[in-house]
Write a structure and sequence with these properties.
about 775 residues; eight-stranded mixed sheet; 29 strands
């Protein structure tokens, strides 16, 4: 295996390349997750009773056998919720518990939570939950996009973005194409499943340990369902064992159930989902269909394009509107469309509510664009890279032409051309492509394919008000610093990065900064750690707090223009150590606590007009992937991957490289092996590792060269001119999918569309 990690760190800057803050604890098994906290003897354990049908009404539900089961303390239904019985993050359309003994209940998907068992042990709760006797009035479920279209089942009205007259531009173009690509969803498969522990306090107080990316949303859900004010609920998150978007909204139900049991029993309550139940109960990445129609000239320059996107949203709204919007925002990927129309349909089906997943709709939009480019290239008999280059947005600083997106935002920072040029040379792309073509001509069964794809990904929440962050920084008398902010740590290294910001601001070693759990009673109204904005927003909020504290200390010292570095504070005419300055400030009654805040600037969005600036900036990257395909079995593997990614001025090159690698592999998994299958009754058949195939170490290519772009620098004022890195690399996995299509077409000798995921079976079907 080859990885250009050392040179990448050197090129990006050796400074700041520190290990994850919990790396040693992870290896030693000392990192504490929600389920690792000591359980008091009074703790009760919970399990949901789940629906056995995907759509219908509950005619009767006999809970007597459940209540009589060994170890059961209580069985709770919707009637026991003192508040609103809803965990929907946007629309109020997700009852926490679907069954009411007074009103009955409606079932919307297989595995929906009907009631809650409270027992002395987890095993007792789980066994008892299966004893309920339920009679349903079952209806035929709506499961697919085709089903939803036929039934007219949608969550919202269609949404449209447009620039110019795409219909006329396509009609007038010398060449035209139509095509379609279907893409499946994806299970988050976080290592730590959904879990929460709720502990009642004095009066109506409730403390919740939750594995969530959005503590404030969990706080709000618990408060609303229990009829409490938000200030009575404290949500705490030290770390998650992975999230990937699956814990942005989906943790609310788990926390509400635990808090309800704790409130009604007066005892600590824990709910930890079994892996099968977790996969059945919780949302996934949205399955999509993208139809495209494009007009272009003989050189492959796009003149007009129409996309129609269909999202399978599941049974409730969740975050589907924003996710489908982002798919529209990324229907251009890195390409300028002189005229474009993008229409989005949000289908309501009887599946689990689809939810946020790394990329948040962006990957589906990007894949549609890249399939279209590849189709054009095949029609013209050209290298797809040639077509990509001809349609790139104009380079940064090149002027007004070829710089406007379909939604009216000017691309001011486009560096994709430079990145691709660099990668083509480093990966020896052209020579390898020629060699692969020659090799394929001599190999009747085994075929190789190669593809280079770019990504341009918008950074910011497209729901504008979420682009804010808070922080709390405390300096103690001995000079040590306590740091808290609204971001959550899910393994991505956010805590380390933000702590490095504080250390650099104060001129202190990194071990002088203590990182503490995210808590809603320290930083209120937090935004979710999502949209790749964790470091951007929380880093700037921490910097704001540090700036306030530095200004107070400097004013106390009379040190105008003070410089904080290497544990010292220096100014014209004097210097002192950090420790002495802090002690002196404390004795002089100078406040050594500060609350920082940051709101991302420049963002505007006119939703009715579908115009504005939804993103602060764009992140860019490119990947070359080479694959080998056995055309007799469909089996395949990646042989080599070369990645060049722009993270601006990296806050931590070691962590950023890990994010690039992990994102790419997760994107490859979505597009090649991770297939979600529901049977005709709406039951998830792929609900365990035995039936759902995520990439493993053996799926990694033998050669994987990754670099951070040495010239990277954010033109916008972000924390140290860095760029987000969490989501954009996932879309580089598109290169592996299209390389497989190239290998498949080398065997077929003609254009063959391929849907995702490109499993061995689907490759064989495309060849047949």
């Amino acid at each position: 295996m080859s990885m250009d990690g050392a040179s990448a760190l050197s090129a990006a800057s050796a400074t700041g390349a520190l290990a994850h803050d919990s790396a040693h604890r992870h290896v030693a098994g000392d990192a504490r997750y929600v389920d690792d906290h000591a359980e008091p003897g009074a703790m009760v354990h919970l399990a949901f009773g789940l629906s056995a049908v995907a759509r219908g009404r509950i005619l009767s539900l006999d809970l007597a056998p459940v209540r009589a089961a060994p170890g059961v303390i209580r069985v709770l239904t919707a009637d026991d919720l003192p508040g609103i019985n809803d965990t929907g993050p946007v629309a109020r359309d997700e009852p926490a518990l679907a069954f009411s003994e007074r009103r009955g209940g409606e079932v919307n998907y297989h595995g929906q939570a009907l009631f809650l068992v409270v027992a002395r042990t987890r095993e007792a709760a789980r066994l008892a939950a299966k004893l309920a006797v339920v009679e349903y009035e079952e209806e035929a479920p709506i499961l697919s996009i085709d089903d939803a279209i036929a039934a007219g089942s949608y969550l919202t009205a269609p949404y449209r973005m447009a620039a110019g007259d795409a219909v006329d531009a396509i009609a007038a173009a010398p060449r035209r194409l139509k095509g379609r690509i279907e893409m499946g969803g994806q299970e988050h498969f976080y290592l730590e499943g959904q879990v929460a522990v709720a502990t009642p306090g004095e009066g109506d107080e409730m403390h919740v340990l939750s594995s969530t990316q959005h503590p404030s949303e969990v706080q709000a859900a618990v408060a609303h369902n229990l009829a409490l004010p938000a200030n009575a609920v404290t949500v705490e998150v030290r770390r998650m064992g992975g999230g990937f978007g699956g814990k942005e909204t989906q943790g609310a139900l788990i926390a509400v159930a635990a808090a309800l049991a704790a409130k009604l029993t007066g005892r600590p309550a824990k709910l930890r989902l079994d892996r099968d139940d977790d996969m059945i109960l919780t949302g996934k990445r949205h399955p999509f269909r993208v139809d495209y129609e494009v007009g272009f000239d003989d050189e492959g320059c796009i003149l007009g394009v129409r996309f129609e996107q269909w999202a399978n949203c599941g049974w409730s709204e969740d975050l589907s509107a924003a996710i489908a919007d982002r798919a529209m925002f990324h229907a251009d990927n890195a390409y300028f469309y002189p005229a474009a129309e993008i229409i989005s349909h949000r289908c309501r089906t009887n599946l689990c509510s689809m939810t946020a997943f790394r990329g948040f709709g962006g990957p589906q939009g990007v894949l549609g664009a890249e399939r279209m480019i590849q189709h054009i290239a095949h029609e013209l008999g050209r290298d797809p890279l040639t077509i990509r280059r001809r349609n790139f947005y104009a380079s940064a600083g090149a002027g007004e032409a070829r710089a406007m997106t379909p939604y009216g935002m000017r691309v001011e920072d486009c560096v994709i051309g430079e990145i691709v040029d660099d990668l083509v040379v480093a990966a020896d792309y052209h020579a390898r492509r020629a060699e692969i073509a020659e090799w394929n001509s001599q190999s009747p069964v085994m075929k190789r394919g190669i593809s280079l794809t770019p990504v341009k990904f918008g950074i910011s929440f497209t729901t504008t008000h979420l682009n804010q962050a808070g922080a709390l920084v405390l300096i103690y008398q001995d000079g040590s610093v306590m740091l808290n902010h609204g971001g959550t740590e899910m393994g991505q290294g956010l805590y380390r990065k933000v702590a490095q910001v504080a250390a650099a601001e104060f001129g202190l070693p990194d071990d002088a900064i203590r990182i503490t759990a995210t808590r809603t009673d320290k930083v209120p109204n937090t935004s979710p750690t999502a949209a790749s904005s964790g470091s951007d927003m929380n880093g700037m909020a921490v910097k704001d707090a540090c700036d306030q504290l530095k200004a107070r200390i400097a004013a106390h010292l009379g040190a105008e223009g003070a410089i904080f570095e290497n544990g010292m504070i220096r100014w014209t005419g004097g210097e002192t150590s950090w420790a002495e300055a802090v002690s002196s400030a404390y004795m002089a009654r100078v406040s050594l606590a500060a609350s920082g805040f940051y709101a991302t600037p420049k963002l505007t969005w006119d939703r009715p007009a579908a115009k504005g600036r939804p993103f602060y900036y764009f992140a860019y990257g490119a990947a070359v992937t080479e694959v080998l395909l056995d055309t007799l079995t469909g089996e395949n593997r990646m042989l080599r991957v070369d990645i060049l990614h722009d993270v601006g001025r990296s806050l931590n090159p070691a962590i950023d490289l890990g994010q690039v690698e992990g994102g790419f592999i997760q994107g490859v998994g979505w597009l090649t092996t991770e297939e979600l299958v529901w049977d005709p009754k709406g039951r998830l058949a792929t609900h365990a590792p035995s039936t759902y195939k995520i990439p493993t170490a053996g799926d990694r290519p033998e050669v994987m060269n990754m670099r951070l772009w040495a010239k990277g620098e954010n033109r916008e004022l972000t924390i140290r001119r860095s760029k987000a890195v969490g989501e954009p690399p996932l879309m580089l996995g598109v290169s592996a999918f299209l390389a497989l299509q190239e290998a498949m077409m080398a065997s077929a000798g003609e254009w063959r569309p391929l849907d995702a995921p490109a499993t061995a079976e689907r490759l064989l079907m495309a060849l047949d």
